[in-house]
Structure formats: structure tokens, C-alpha cells
């Protein structure tokens, strides 16, 4: 080759290299800015607990992860991962020239990217920023980003981020969640045998998982141990002991089902409305619900048992819902939205708006007492009456089509007479009744029509339980909730739902109504609800027996029970809340209150009567 030719080749090669470098430089300007990782927070699994701290469920999106600091990770696991993935991690600046060189030769020989040569830092930036497609340009981008990342984060910061980010199989991300899944223990407690097995999984979780093949996982474990021994990071004795250590597997937790799905789904929906779906699935929230697991279990068993019982008694009802609320806090203590969650996830406790029938009447009677114009001893006529309404004349009837003539207001509610309730509503003003309902948190559409006092609107069992709870607490009300407290994974408080009670009802009227409703249970339509302690409540049966209810309370707990069909078909002629639902309420309350002291209601005489 002549000097001129050699010069031309050199110039041409230089131009190609220069052009390639310019092209790379231009493309690298579009690479992500690694500085964002200073504040990077990987997605985390959110956990739900009952009021006493018992785990109910975990919820996550595509990544089931719990982030932990580096000092909470077993030293054996850190060494095992570095040994098999990047033994020169603490000495390189983001790329390992010898590994890259070896990989480049293999890739050149095969004509494709077959061997990685990636450092742990390169793997991290690939997982966070880049696609998984194997291309030379991506490998170069990995190297550039890795060098940049090493300039802004310390080695320990990078290792911590990697161990919390890496995928370990079975939709499990991060070292803590993987340790809990594979071995049923925290990452801090892993021994050398477990650490070597876990480190070996990273390269191909779908193949090396012990849940897939313990034999293959053990072979991979030996590979990691061999590497650690060759590096001088473990002794021959440690190597031999690890190989002989029996591995006890945990269980796959990636798609863990909730032990109480109606509770956790209700809590998740409440959080989604406040913070959005992504925060729930990826925010690593720690959600303390208000629910008592013991009480919830009783509620679920009560619904399942009594559904079978009333069906055997001829009640043609496919569904049931039960909600219990603490009147002092408005914390939901138990919530069952249907007979069988596995067959129907629809939550009738919070989403089904059904007519409450006569269980609506207490709101009318409260309004009458709060007006100052009526007392329990006031006389009202249970006699025929008609009202002009759009389209004609409406004539209300009592359930048995009879009339009792003049009777005390107290007795008219105890035995659930319809005509006295309609007349009371008309006397105090139906707009006032609507106002009472709104104050109590009943948000369904309702019109001030003459039939309103008979419950011709849609309400949810939760709305009813919460409304009765406010009456039980003499008019003091907090916002009803199923969430007591929410923190992030570091313990920082995000939401604190500590009760903030406000007086929203007239206390004398609420206490007077409670006193009257005690009579419903002692000598009225709800005698089947007697539980051997002071209690107040009301039966509810709609026209054509489409919905039957019992809602009642003691000072410490208010519970609503609804029975009916999703398709609004009648449950059976003569099926009433007093006969069939009051016993369900009694069964639940008797068990739920077993360890709760008996408490009397405060008498109306302790409050000033409104003028």
C-alpha cells in the first residue's frame, strides 16, 4: 500500500469514526437525565391492616415491591449478588472494561448481542430507563448512563436502588418482597444458602425460581457459591455448610388475595377517590382500616349462615348486606357487601341504593321532635287521609289496612303505623325532613312528596348505619370512614382520620327518638331483636316486600342489615324486617358485643328541650 493510499484509508476511517461519534453524541443528547434518580421512588406494594394491625391484603400494580434501606439487607445477599452479577462493582466507574471486551468478542463472533457484560449499574439504568430489546446502540446507551449515574450517586446508593428495583420472578420486585415470598422471612435475615439461591435467580427468574424447579435452583445456587469461593469472599467451610443447609420455601405472594375483600376493596376505593389508582397500586401505602377483624369475621359468618336459614324459611332473597359503625367515631367496624364475594364482587353495603321502607321513619320523627312541636306523648290520629299529587289522589295505607284512631306518637313509631308518619311529615314540613336526611349523610335524590316518610327513596346500608349512629351519639357526627390512618412505607403520615365530631342534630330530639326506638325492640315490631341490653332500632319493609331491613344500635355500635334481590324481585308475601331480619341483627350484635360492657342510653331529661 502506497503512502497516499494509506493516508486516504486513515482519513476515511477517521471520518467514519468521527461521524459515528458525532451521531452517538447527538443521540446521547436525547438520553434520560439520570439526575432524576436522586429523588427516584420505585413503585411499592400497598398493605391493608385491620384496626389492630393484622394484615388483611396487599395491593399492587405490575410491581409487587417493598422498598427497604441497604442496612436492612443481609450482608450474605449483598455479597452473593455482587459475586454473580458484578464482582468489580466497587472498583469500576459504571462500566467494566474487561467484561465489555469479553462480551464484545463473543457478540462479534455471533453477529448479535448474545452476551451482556453489563455492570450492576448498567442493569439498573436499563431497568429504569431503557427497553429490553438487545441492540448495540442500547448497550452503548447503558454504558453512557451508567457512567453518568456513578458521578451523582454513591456505590451504596446504587446498590440499594438496584436491590429494591430488580425483578425476582412471580411478579415480585425488590429484595424484601422476594425474600418474603421465597423464604417467608425478611431480607435482613437471609442466611448464605438462601442468599446464594436468591442471587442466582436474578439472571433468569422464570427458569431458576425454586417454585419452578428446586433442582435447577440448587444448581444455580452452587454456581453462585463457587463464584463467591473463587473470589475469596467465603471459606470452604462456609461453602460446604451453605450447600448442606435445608431450604424452606415460603409461598408466592405476588397475587395475594385479601382475607376480607369487601373491606379492602372499600378502603382502596376510598383511597382512589382521594389520591388516585396509581397511589394505591404503586405508592407503598400502609393503610390501617377501622375494621375489627373479629367483628368482621362474625359479620361474614352471620350473613352466610342466616342467608341459608331464611332461604329455608321460604324467603326468596339472593342477597344480604351488613354494616356496623361505631357511633362515637363513625368508624366502620364491619362491612359485608354480599353473601359470597367469590360469586359477586358487587358491594351492596356501599353501592346498592334500596328503599328503606319504615326504617326511614325515624328521620321524620326526629324532625318532629326537633321542631319543638311534638313529644313522644303527643297524640296523632291514625285515620284515613288523602293527598293531591301530580296525576291524581294518593291515599296512604297501613301495612294491615286497619286504623287505630288517636294514638301517642311514641306508640305510632313502635308499631310502625304508616299514616301517622305521613301526617307527621306533612305537619313539620317535608323540606325539613329532606334537610334532616342531608345532615345525616343520606345523599340519594329525594323529593318532598307526601310518600317520602314511608321511605320511597334509595339508600345504601352504610348510609343507614351511619345515620342511625349519629342519632345514637345524640347528634354528634364525624365523617364515616373505613380508613383510620395511612402512612407511606417510611412511616410518614399521609392521612389521619381521627374523629372530628361536630354537633349536627338537636341532642334532646336525638335522645328522645332513641328512647322511643327502644320501644320498637321491647314492645313493638322489632321484639325479635332483643339482645339482653338497652338497644334501639327500627324495622323496614317496602311495598311488595322487595326490601326488608333492620337497623339498630347500642351506644357503642350501630348496625344495618338489608335483605333482598339484585333484580328487585319480591322476597315473599308477608316477609317483613321484624320477622326475618331482626333475628339476623340480634345474632350479629349478640356476638359482636360479647366483650363490650353494657351501657345505658342517656335519658332525654339530661338535655334541654328545644323551644
From TrEMBL:
Segments forming domain Penicillin-binding protein transpeptidase: 321-589
Ranges that cross the membrane: 6-28
Known catalytic reactions: Preferential cleavage: (Ac)2-L-Lys-D-Ala-|-D-Ala. Also transpeptidation of peptidyl-alanyl moieties that are N-acyl substituents of D-alanine; [GlcNAc-(1->4)-Mur2Ac(oyl-L-Ala-gamma-D-Glu-L-Lys-D-Ala-D-Ala)](n)-di-trans,octa-cis-undecaprenyl diphosphate + beta-D-GlcNAc-(1->4)-Mur2Ac(oyl-L-Ala-gamma-D-Glu-L-Lys-D-Ala-D-Ala)-di-trans,octa-cis-undecaprenyl diphosphate = [GlcNAc-(1->4)-Mur2Ac(oyl-L-Ala-gamma-D-Glu-L-Lys-D-Ala-D-Ala)](n+1)-di-trans,octa-cis-undecaprenyl diphosphate + di-trans,octa-cis-undecaprenyl diphosphate + H(+)
Domain Glycosyl transferase family per the UniProt entry, residue ranges: 53-228
InterPro entries to which the protein is assigned, alphabetical: Beta-lactam/transpept-like, Glyco_trans_51, Glycosyltr_51/Transpeptidase, Lysozyme-like_dom_sf, PBP_transglycosylase, PCN-bd_Tpept
GO cellular component: outer membrane-bounded periplasmic space
GO molecular function list: penicillin binding; peptidoglycan glycosyltransferase activity; serine-type D-Ala-D-Ala carboxypeptidase activity
UniProt keywords, alphabetically: Carboxypeptidase, Cell shape, Cell wall biogenesis/degradation, Glycosyltransferase, Hydrolase, Membrane, Multifunctional enzyme, Peptidoglycan synthesis, Protease, Transferase, Transmembrane, Transmembrane helix
Source species, domain of life: Bacteria
Pfam families given in the database record: Transgly, Transpeptidase
Biological process annotations from GO: cell wall organization; peptidoglycan biosynthetic process; proteolysis; regulation of cell shape
Family (UniProt): In the N-terminal section; belongs to the glycosyltransferase 51 family. In the C-terminal section; belongs to the transpeptidase family.
Entry protein name: Penicillin-binding protein
Amino acid at each position: 500500500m502506497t503512502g497516499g493510499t494509506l493516508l486516504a484509508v486513515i482519513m476515511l476511517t477517521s471520518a467514519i469514526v468521527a461521524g459515528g461519534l458525532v451521531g452517538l453524541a447527538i443521540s446521547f443528547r436525547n438520553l434520560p437525565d439520570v439526575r432524576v434518580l436522586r429523588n427516584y421512588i420505585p413503585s411499592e406494594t400497598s398493605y391493608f391492616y385491620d384496626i389492630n394491625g393484622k394484615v388483611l391484603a396487599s395491593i399492587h400494580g405490575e410491581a409487587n415491591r417493598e422498598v427497604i434501606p441497604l442496612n436492612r439487607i443481609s450482608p450474605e445477599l449483598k455479597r452473593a449478588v455482587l459475586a454473580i452479577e458484578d464482582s468489580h462493582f466497587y472498583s469500576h466507574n459504571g462500566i467494566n472494561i474487561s467484561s465489555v471486551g469479553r462480551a464484545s468478542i463473543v457478540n462479534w463472533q455471533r453477529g448479535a448481542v448474545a452476551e451482556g457484560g453489563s455492570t450492576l449499574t448498567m442493569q439498573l439504568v436499563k431497568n429504569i430507563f431503557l427497553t429490553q430489546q438487545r441492540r448495540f446502540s442500547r448497550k452503548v446507551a447503558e454504558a453512557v448512563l451508567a457512567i453518568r449515574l456513578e458521578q451523582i450517586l454513591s456505590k451504596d446508593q446504587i446498590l440499594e436502588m438496584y436491590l429494591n428495583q430488580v425483578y425476582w420472578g412471580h411478579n415480585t420486585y425488590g429484595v424484601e418482597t422476594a425474600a418474603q415470598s421465597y423464604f417467608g422471612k425478611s431480607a435482613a435475615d437471609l442466611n448464605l444458602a438462601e442468599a446464594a439461591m436468591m442471587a442466582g435467580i436474578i439472571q433468569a427468574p422464570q427458569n431458576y425460581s425454586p417454585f419452578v424447579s428446586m433442582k435447577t435452583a440448587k444448581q444455580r445456587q452452587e454456581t453462585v457459591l463457587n463464584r463467591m469461593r473463587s473470589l475469596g469472599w467465603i471459606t470452604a467451610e462456609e461453602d460446604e455448610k451453605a450447600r448442606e443447609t435445608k431450604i424452606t420455601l415460603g409461598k408466592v405472594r405476588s397475587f395475594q388475595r385479601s382475607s376480607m375483600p369487601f373491606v379492602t376493596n372499600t378502603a382502596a376505593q376510598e383511597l382512589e377517590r382521594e389520591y388516585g389508582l396509581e397511589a394505591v397500586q404503586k405508592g407503598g401505602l400502609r393503610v390501617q382500616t377501622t375494621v375489627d377483624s373479629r367483628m368482621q369475621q362474625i359479620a361474614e359468618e352471620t350473613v352466610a349462615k342466616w342467608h341459608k336459614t331464611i332461604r329455608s324459611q321460604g324467603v326468596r332473597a339472593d342477597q344480604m348486606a351488613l354494616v356496623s359503625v361505631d357511633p362515637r367515631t363513625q368508624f366502620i367496624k364491619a362491612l359485608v357487601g354480599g353473601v359470597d364475594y367469590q360469586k359477586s364482587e358487587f358491594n351492596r353495603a356501599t353501592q346498592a341504593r334500596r328503599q328503606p321502607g319504615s326504617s326511614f321513619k325515624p328521620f321524620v320523627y326526629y324532625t318532629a321532635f326537633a321542631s319543638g312541636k311534638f313529644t313522644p306523648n303527643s297524640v296523632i290520629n291514625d285515620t284515613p287521609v288523602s293527598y293531591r299529587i301530580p296525576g291524581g289522589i294518593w291515599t296512604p295505607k297501613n301495612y294491615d289496612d286497619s286504623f287505630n284512631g288517636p294514638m301517642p306518637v311514641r306508640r305510632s313509631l313502635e308499631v310502625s303505623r304508616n299514616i301517622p308518619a305521613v301526617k307527621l311529615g306533612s305537619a313539620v314540613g317535608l323540606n325539613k325532613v329532606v334537610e334532616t336526611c342531608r345532615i345525616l349523610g343520606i345523599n340519594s335524590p329525594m323529593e318532598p312528596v307526601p310518600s317520602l316518610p314511608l321511605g320511597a327513596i334509595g339508600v345504601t346500608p352504610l348510609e343507614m348505619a351511619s345515620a342511625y349512629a349519629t342519632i345514637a351519639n345524640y347528634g354528634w357526627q364525624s365523617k364515616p370512614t373505613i380508613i383510620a390512618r395511612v402512612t407511606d412505607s417510611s412511616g410518614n403520615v399521609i392521612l389521619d382520620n381521627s374523629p372530628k365530631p361536630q354537633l349536627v342534630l338537636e341532642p334532646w330530639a336525638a335522645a328522645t327518638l332513641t328512647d322511643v326506638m327502644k320501644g320498637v325492640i321491647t314492645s313493638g315490631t322489632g321484639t325479635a331483636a332483643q339482645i339482653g341490653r338497652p338497644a334501639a332500632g327500627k324495622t323496614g319493609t317496602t311495598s311488595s316486600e322487595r326490601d326488608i331491613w333492620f337497623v339498630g344500635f347500642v351506644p357503642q355500635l350501630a348496625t344495618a342489615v338489608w335483605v333482598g334481590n339484585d333484580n328487585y324481585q319480591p322476597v315473599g308475601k308477608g316477609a317483613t324486617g321484624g320477622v326475618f331480619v331482626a333475628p339476623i341483627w340480634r345474632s350479629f350484635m349478640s356476638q359482636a358485643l360479647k366483650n363490650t360492657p353494657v351501657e345505658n342510653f342517656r335519658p332525654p331529661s339530661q338535655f334541654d328541650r328545644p323551644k
